[in-house]
Write a structure and sequence with these properties.
The chain is α/β, with parallel strands linked by helices and about 500 residues long. About 60% of the residues lie in helices and about 10% in strands. It folds into 2 domains: about 85-215 and about 250-355, no CATH class; about 380-500, no CATH class. β4 and β5 form a beta hairpin. The longest helix is centred in the middle third of the chain and has 23 residues, at about 285-310. This is Glycosyltransferase RgtA/B/C/D-like domain-containing protein.
Length: about 500
């Protein structure tokens, strides 16, 4: 072994976890700096989830409860600042990366290979563009992926030792994963596929503790199912709706678009590398079979979803837990580090291009417009809402109301005082969001409202209220091709919903 090779090997045998924690801390504080300094203001889903967090429950309109619980925790400790609302996301992704590191450590009895696999897997996950993007926003993906990692790690340890403690942890993690996002239900198919590919997998399915663990995980859903029963299974209605909206026919173009998008989810270099490596030979080792089993079910299900109806590119996120582990496992067997370094650098540059998009376009002289700015949906909302503040100050006893979930979420957060229980006006009897479910106009005890809308709704409002006054119309130019605008009405004397409105 050459001196250079020996020195390189020493890097991975001398305190590799410290190197990994240093990278993790650097990325965590860098991303927090981006959130605070840019600033990355709230996306309306985040403001919407913050409204959920005001009333802890076992379920909410469109999602199980964990995202609301997390926001309630971080805001209870740090207040309602934007970074505090988002904080659980970078924390959970960081914790997930540590679990991935510890998982990959178990891939080999050779300490050098194990250290390399752990460091590479954890680094691939941390620098994945999906994680880089999602760390700036609190969504259901953060707890989903964290509990996915924790559940898989606990299953791996339980498979090795059959220790009751690891089986218990797997069940609890699985249950909390189901309470994070319903797509967690795909994870057990990992072990079904593993049983097809491996004798060890078949032995796992013969272990009664495996099935008891699955039952324990499913039991966590019972309170959420009861909540849904009380609300006509509204969460499942919503999930079915978004799974089938936008299209009712199969589409190869949607499938190709979804697959192409995965290059920017995981990173082009590393995704192409593991796919080529996987296609060149069938999985030989038991760990390869398990990791491909962790990847393929989620990727396949979402590919079918994209082909049959619609699938956002981020929905396959849990599959890239397996992909990160596969990349680390394969790269640890190579003598050089070229593919690893090129892959990680390209992923870092993709994330940085997103983080500093404004500065980059300024330097290059590129005009930002509605069609080319990834921040277009969050840009300018604090300033826009504050333009309406004088009227909310003038009428402090009037309740916030709207016909838009987006406006209720943004005005509820950015107006002073904050109002997370804005009243929703709907033209039909179909419940489309949390506000219509919990705070519909028909059930409101309030008598007077400040009604905000992006449209001219004066004629519609006069159907429901005896007094309707347009207070102001405000606009905020964001780009040369887009101006945000809304109208604020003062309304009172609710007449009630007509039979036509209820149909």
């Amino acid at each position: 072994m050459s001196a250079a090779s020996s020195d390189t090997t020493t890097v991975f045998t001398a305190h590799p976890f410290r190197w990994f924690l240093a990278l993790l801390a650097l990325l965590f504080f860098y991303r927090e700096w981006v959130v605070i300094s840019t600033p990355i203001t709230l996306f309306y889903d985040e403001a919407y989830y913050l409204g959920w967090a005001q009333t802890l429950d076992w379920g909410y309109y469109s999602k199980p409860p964990v995202v609301g619980w997390l926001i309630a925790l971080t805001t209870a400790v740090f207040g309602n600042a934007e970074w505090a609302v988002k904080l659980a996301s970078p924390l959970l992704y960081s914790a997930a990366a540590i679990i991935i590191y510890r998982t990959a450590e178990r891939f080999s009895d050779d300490k050098v290979i194990a250290a390399k696999a752990a460091l590479f897997s954890g680094s691939v996950f941390l620098l994945m563009p999906l994680v880089g993007f999602n760390s700036l926003f609190i969504t259901t993906d953060a707890p989903l992926i964290f509990f996915w990692c924790l559940c898989f790690y606990a299953f791996l340890r339980a498979k090795e030792s059959n220790n009751a403690g690891w089986w218990l942890l797997a069940g609890v993690a699985g249950g909390l994963g189901l309470l994070s996002k319903y797509t967690f239900i795909i994870l057990p198919t990992t072990f079904l596929l593993y049983a097809v590919l491996s004798t060890a997998g078949r032995q796992l399915l013969l272990n009664p503790r495996f099935w008891l663990t699955c039952l324990l995980a499913l039991s966590f859903l019972l309170p959420n199912l009861y909540w849904n029963y009380q609300h006509d299974f509204i969460s499942f209605q919503h999930t079915a709706q978004i799974s089938h909206q936008s299209s009712s026919s199969i589409s190869f173009s949607r499938l190709i678009e979804f697959w192409s998008g995965q290059l920017f989810v995981f990173g082009p270099v590393l995704l192409i590398y593991i796919v080529i490596r996987g296609l060149r030979r069938q999985p030989r080792s038991d760990i390869e079979k398990l990791l491909w089993s962790l990847f393929w079910p989620t990727f396949a299900v979402l590919s079918v979803q994209a082909f049959m109806a619609r699938a956002n590119i981020n929905w396959a996120g849990p599959a890239y837990v397996g992909a990160s582990l596969l990349a680390g496992y394969y790269l640890s067997q190579l003598k050089g580090y070229r593919i690893l370094l090129i892959g990680l650098l390209s992923n870092l540059l993709l994330s940085m291009a997103f983080y500093h998009y404004g500065s980059i376009t300024n330097v290059l002289g590129i005009e930002r417009k509605w069609g080319n700015d990834p921040y277009k949906r969050i840009l300018g909302w604090p300033e826009f809402v504050h333009q309406f503040q004088p009227w909310f100050d003038q009428y402090p006893d009037y309740k916030l109301a709207s016909d838009s979930r987006k406006l209720l979420a943004y005005f509820g957060y950015y107006i002073t005082p904050q109002d997370f229980k804005g009243v929703a006006l709907s033209d039909d009897n179909y419940i489309e969001d949390h506000y219509e479910l919990q705070y519909p106009l028909a059930r409101s005890q309030e008598k007077r409202f400040l009604f905000i809308s992006e449209h001219d709704v004066e004629a519609k409002l006069k159907r429901y209220f005896t007094e309707v006054t347009l207070l102001t119309e405000q606009s905020l130019p964001l780009y040369s091709n887009f101006t945000r605008s809304a109208r604020l009405y003062k309304v009172s004397g609710f007449k009630g919903m007509t039979q036509k409105d209820k149909q």
